[in-house]
Write a structure and sequence with these properties.
Elements lengths: L25 E3 L2 E3 L15 H8 L4 H17 L5 E5 L5 H9 L4 E6 L2 H10 L4 E4 L11 E7 L8 H11 E12 L7 H5 L8 H10 L2 E9 L4 H14 L15 H19 L9 E8 L8
Helix pairs in contact: 2-3, 2-9
Length: about 300
């Protein structure tokens, strides 16, 4: 159900007018804006990155491999998916893949930056979009699944986001997450991508369980490439100290290198599909399920 972003009341009409506090979100570029003050000034990302991302995602081994892994996880762990919300949907690259894989699912996407929503709406015109702060999601018990793909590491109050996701999911609903992993890999790329942290798996598990989730699957990925990534990050820390750094340029690779890395990631994904859960890797995939309290303790 919809709830008022200002007071939390469920007494809202189809236009999101709250009967209790009379709040109604403004419409910005054709979408409801629940955090308009942050639409172009929100922390955690650079608004001007969206155009660059839209130009490179479809050809990048990293974005393609991550999207394929996410869609496999959705098919495996949420086979009866009917409603899905992606928070921090960016340019809509993952959401467009979800639409192709689940053509009948009711899709929604949110982004704190209104600039990103224009790209996402162009890629997935059938989805509903919202300008929204993930720390205040105006839904309760609404979605079968919610995704946050390389999003919560940008937000200082990640536990508040996880708690909001739990409230917005139906009992038994799934939260799918990808995040960067291992603080030892911290480099200029993290700083210029406005990361607040790189995760430790046990810490993310604790935060999810505290919010009422049970972890169905947790595995690292970018695992076979981890030695190369570690060397690259160490070199980056030395070479970029005190100099300018282009976070987008860092993921532009020569065609041959991009193709080889894509093959490695495909092999890694095949192992994950067979049941291998990698203990270490540059990133972490988690599928967590909201506890259904009506079923009693598990």
């Amino acid at each position: 159900m919809k709830v008022c972003a200002a007071c939390g009341s469920a007494r809202t009409d189809d236009a999101w007018l709250c009967e209790d506090c009379a709040n109604r979100p403004e419409v910005m570029d054709g979408v409801f804006a629940f955090a308009p003050a942050l639409a172009s000034t929100g922390a955690g990302f650079r608004e001007d990155y969206f155009a660059d991302l839209a130009a490179i995602e479809a050809g990048s081994f990293w974005f393609r491999a991550r999207s394929a892994l996410i869609i496999w996880a959705m098919r495996r762990y949420v086979p009866d998916l009917r409603t899905f919300l992606e928070i921090g949907c960016g340019t809509g690259f993952v959401l467009s893949g979800v639409r192709a894989a689940f053509p009948s699912v009711e899709l929604s996407g949110s982004e704190i930056f209104s600039a990103g929503l224009a790209f996402a709406a162009g890629r997935v015109p059938s989805a509903r979009f919202y300008q929204m702060d993930a720390r205040n999601i105006p839904f309760r018990d609404e979605f079968d699944a919610i995704g946050a793909f390389d999003v919560i590491e940008h937000i200082e109050e990640d536990e508040a986001v996880i708690a909001e996701v739990a409230r917005a999911l139906r009992p038994g609903g799934s939260f799918l997450i990808t995040v960067p992993q291992h603080p030892a890999l911290w480099s200029a790329q993290d700083e210029h991508a406005f990361h607040a942290r790189r995760y430790v798996a046990s810490d993310l598990r604790r935060k999810l369980e505290t919010a009422g989730f049970e972890v169905d699957r947790m595995t690292s990925f970018v695992s076979l490439l981890l030695p190369m990534m570690f060397v690259s990050r160490r070199r980056m820390r030395r070479e970029q100290a005190g100099s300018e750094f282009d976070a987008i340029d860092a993921v532009r690779l020569p065609w041959a290198v991009n193709a080889v890395l894509g093959v490695v990631m495909a092999a890694e994904r095949a192992l994950i599909r067979l049941g291998v859960s990698f203990p270490v890797g540059g990133s972490l995939l988690v599928v967590a399920r909201k506890r259904d309290l009506s079923e009693g303790p598990s």
